[in-house]
Design a protein that fits this description.
Blueprint (H helix, E strand, L loop, with lengths): L1 H12 L8 H30 L1 H5 L3 E6 L5 H10 L2 E14 L6 E10 L10 E3 L4 H5 L8 E4 L1 H7 L6 E4 L2 E11 L13 E5 L16 E7 L6 H11 L6 E4 L5 H39 L1 H9 L4 H33 L1 H7 L10 H24 L23 H22 L2 H33 L8 H10 L5 H37 L3 E6 L4 H9 L4 E17 L2 E2 H5 L9 E5 L9 E4 L11 E5 H7 L6 E6 L2 E11 L12 E3 L10 E8 L4 H11 L4 E4 H40 L1 H13 L4 H38 L8 H21 L2 H5 L2 H7 L2
Parallel strand pairs: 3-8, 5-7, 14-19, 16-18
Antiparallel strand pairs: 1-9, 1-10, 2-3, 2-6, 2-9, 4-7, 5-8, 6-7, 11-20, 11-21, 12-13, 12-14, 12-17, 12-20, 15-18, 16-19, 17-18
Keywords: Cell membrane, Membrane, Transmembrane, Transmembrane helix
Protein name: Drug:proton antiporter
Subcellular location: Cell membrane
Amino acid sequence: MSLRNALRIARRELRGGLRGFWILLGCLALGVAAIAAVGSVRAAIEAGLARDGAVLLGGDAEISLTYRFADPAERDWMDRNAEAVSEIVDFRSMAVVGGGDRADRALTQVKAVDAAWPLVGLAALDPPQPIAQALGPAASGLPGAVMDPLLADRLGLAIGDRFRLGLQDFELTARLVAEPDSGAAGFGFGPRTLVLREALRDSQLLGPGTLFDSRYRLLLADGTDPRSLRARWRAEFPDSGARWRDSRRGAPGIGTFVDRIGAFLVLVGLTGLAVGGVGVSAAIRAYLERKTEVIAVLKTLGASGRTIFLAYFLQVGLLTLLGVFGGLLLGAGLPLLLAPLIEARLPVPAVFRAYPGPLAEAALYGVLTAFIFTLWPLARTREVRAAALFRDPGGGRGRWPGGLALAGVAVGILGLVAAAAWFSGLPRLTLGAAGGILAAFLVLVSAAILVRRAARRAARSPRLRGRTALRLALGAIGGPREEALSVILSLGLGLSVLAAVGQIESNMRQAIQRELPDRAPTYFFVDIQPDQLEGFRARLDGDPRVSKVETAPMLRGIVTEINGRPARETAGDHWLLRGDRGVTYAATPPGGTKITEGAWWPADHDGPPQVSMSDEVAREIGLRLGDSIAVNILGRDITATITSFREVDFSTAGIGFVMAMNPAALQGAPHTHIATVYAAPEAEAAILRDLAGRFPNITAVPVREAIDRAAGALSRIAAATSWAAGVTLVTGFIVLIGAAAAGERARVFEAAVLKTLGAVRSRILLSFALRAAILGAAAGLVALVAGGLAGWAVMRFVMETGYRFDEVSALAIVLGGILATLLAGLAFALRPLAARPARVLRAQD
């Protein structure tokens, strides 16, 4: 019976329209739309990667080998089990134009292909021509080559010009417009150059120990299961050290990045939804305060508290569904509307359409948020007494709701956090974000209480005599209304997110662009053959402008087993297992090595292999002294016992290896050396010219260019995060407008009283402006502290680097808070200023 009565009351209440609920609808719609849009774009990219997986990968499956080619047995297996096979070699080199002192050099990522490439898709060239023609013999008789336009422009090359890779000359026959299998390439240190593998026969770039990857793309017959094919390969070649991929996930690196950044942006969107929840709660609270007399009348007529609660709960539920539906329409429609623009900026394919999964996720978040933030004020309707018709106009405002309502709020919060952890796939990040939001709420509520108390005390100070506008502003802030709480909560949370993003981005830029280059080497040289090392050192050791040279032998290996079990069973998805890792050897600890546990092997040790591990990596995986680790190097598993842990600092961009073995363990394995060179800027050109001219097979990586590429990637991620944080700010601004609109009636009465007492409009307007500015500054300062602490925590515990407070970003946050509250407050100041005192005061009777 109570449900039927509640439905009838709710239906009649809603006949009055949506007045008072536009803030609720706007906050919900904007928060849900942001999450739905991020999820829809992520789903579109995932669908594009799945649809074009074979094109992105370059085949139905790929077998990758580290620094070696497939042996005859392995290649025969591929030919027997695939309809077509294409061999690709990927490595770094220097593209050289000219000779002598006038030679120009640039780093390039070389892809050497065979005649079967590409198995799937087409390469787009300028001028248009078949890839076989572009890579075949040119008119000059030299082998042809295709180059990325950025690299060609950097070297000043036109079609028909010559350049060198190692000792081999090539003629540029076309520019590379689009590479069909670019999604499988991963991160490269330079723009792409395409050549035929057989053209590199005399280049001396693919000698023993050279750093390269060989990749074999397989075109499979219809109905072939890639997983079973992979199992057969593993059974026949268990020690090959090969990595497998198939078209179901043709670009795993891109897919993982999209998943992670999408999940992170959804968590930022949830912060915006939490800000919107503040507005939802304020809107419901203001609406119910206007309905106090109605509730009291219903109580007088015999309605139970349960019936009244259900009536308003049903109203809010219907409005929540309306707001969520509007947010879903906006979140699904915007990606579709902007699809051409988004696709033009994406480096991967995307299929834009309405995806039910992200929309359902966003709807769930919206409903749970509305439930959490409306249950508290709705529960107070049970506390309104019939006597409110004659006294207690607050209707029980300030009382805590019952235990059942508090339990409902707690269950809603747990449900929201659990849903976010499940959908994001990042439970630790989700719990951290939830804890951060909760902590921010507590800090902001505490700050609002302190601001109100401080304002109340300051308004009574004798020092403010004669400063009427300021005194009025402080008195209003310290008054009984909850304007300070709404403003500081909504604006402070949005500004906190933006402040944290700004501090993190600024500190990362400082670490990458200013601090790191002071300690980082000038060049990083790879592929130094053992017989070239002496001449290499001789050139640098005699140069007074070179401050330091470090060299080390290097091999690459894949960790396959830990303590006799598959490595992933022990280390999970740790980054150490994602691809190959550098391995070095040394008879004695290199200079500056700090052993944290265990001991280095004797210099003449020739017994069972031993390995020294990075102590940080060991802690993350859970390794101990005496554990064994198997590393596949050039197709052979080497099982070594861990005898020591040592500190490895990668932050300097110098030489650092997670694993170092005793020399006898790697005896006979072909390898090269790497080197880092620290030199004055004026010596850079001469060093590169002399070493590249004498040793054309050696590749030089300018560290500053690599740093700039990392900084560019960071800027793009920070931009995406800033846009997501911007949605939080817009939501907060809507809440501010709602708070200002809700307080307009009180300001009208306040202005009327002040006019009656002789105040002029300019003084009243100044008091309104000062009130808004003080609240905005308070919200900005609190956000500054919260954002600064979040930035420090990320830099200290996640990035493990130093932290420096960014004053420019901080000033922008505070000024932004003041400006936002001024705009929202002054937008609703016209009616109070224009109101006639007599009419307003008579209406109070």
